[in-house]
Amino acid sequence: MKKLLILLAFIAIGGSAFAQGYTSIHYDISVPLGKTSDRVSKPSFRGVGLDYRKMINPNLGAGFSLGWHVFYERKDEATYDVSKITNGLFDKITGVQYNYVNAIPLHGNINYYLGEEGDAIRPFIGLGVGTTYFEQKVEMGLYSSTTNAWQFSIQPEAGLLYELSTTMSAFLGAKYTQGFNTSKLDGQSYISFNVGMAWKLN
Amino acid sequence: MIKKFLFFGFIAMMIAGCYPGGAEFVDELDLVLTSHEETYNFGTPSTFALPDQIPKITGSLVEGEPIEYLEADQANLILAQIRTNMEDRGYEEVADQADADLVILPSTLSNTTVVVYCDYWGGYWGWYWPYYGGCYYPSGYAYTTGSVLIQIVDNDQTTPTVNVWGAVINGLLQGSDASIEARVQKGIDQAFAQSTYLKTN
Q: Do the Cβ atoms of A92 and B194 come closer than 8 Å?
């Protein structure tokens, strides 16, 4: 694993000290908000993300970001009203409920970096615009129901790059992902905290 | 290259979501569903009748075979649990069905599902050598689910039969008889607990 990371680092950096941008891979911890927390209120420790930014001038970078965040919560045995979803066939259902939300955000991003090339710490703010795939699944007994949707989404972010060497930086950030209502699924939202590495591009 | 790999990795993730956790114990898959006729006034009737036996729904009736019944001790357990709950709600049991305001009709249903699939290599070799019929190493599993169904029918002879209340207690038929019995009893209690309107004046 370590070897693979080092190899990956070498491929990504290409050997030049002058940064034209970076690729970052990070581990994400996410906290569900709004409609997402209605289903799953617990934070997610299953998440990864990838960022790519190309510098268009010394303070402005453009690129894309990808992520995958999995939310899960088991709800103890409880009684739910199901008259609406079963069209009156049943009024109430009692059982243990398992809730899952898989979110895959895909965004085009623009970031503004404070300071200048060579600074040890470069804080940044940014905005992503794109789409997020949400898959919401609920399981009760031997039955399950899945709703999925590609939602138009925005992703403001803030963070910092801490230079570890001429080619490598630590990446710390927070991204707020807000999806917008689709006919099948209400707009989902969550905030993810990112810790990872960034490799400068030549 | 790496970027391409990562990109396809993400695409692959999109196709199959991740589902951590889930049920670990059989009773976590138990469900209790109830329904009732909203216009019906459960306060009016005061007596009920129960049958001596509980039929198994097997499809045998369709094929012209006699009805199969649940074993006496299992049936008595279910009937006793329904009886206790009905009496707690103020209804009185009568021996003759014709005299009862409400007739309770319990039944049971069990269903075994067998899933057979080919693993990856089975599929691969099956394609390579059609001689093996496409499934070189078939794998599979089976599970049996059981349901207790309870219907309450309004026994007013002057109007067509009306099913005024229904309950389904569903779960996996797995574990010792004692544990299954305990789950069924708990399920019947829950069916009444979530039907607070079911009581006489």
A: yes
ipTM confidence score: 0.76
Interface test with A, best of B25, B28, B149, B165 (most A CBs within 10 A): B28
Task: Please list the residues that pair with B153 across neighbouring strands.
Answer: B103, B163
- Give the whole-angstrom CA distance, residue A7 versus residue A18: 20
Q: Which residues, in sequence order, are CB contacts of B98 under 8 Å at separation 6+? A: B155
Residue of A nearest to B2 (CA): A8
E strand or H helix that includes residue B121: helix B120-128
CA distances, B146 to each of A82, A139, B29, B172, B187 (Å): 21, 18, 11, 6, 12
pLDDT, tens only, A166-191: 889 999 999 999 999 999 999 999 99
> How far apart (Å, rounded) are the C-alpha atoms in residues B47 and B120?
61
Q: What is the mean pLDDT of residues B112-129?
A: 59
Write out the two tokens for A1: 């694993």
Question: Is A5 in a helix, a strand, or coil?
Answer: helix
pLDDT for residue A76 is more than 90: yes
At B154 the three-state DSSP class reads strand
d(CA A13, CA A8): 9
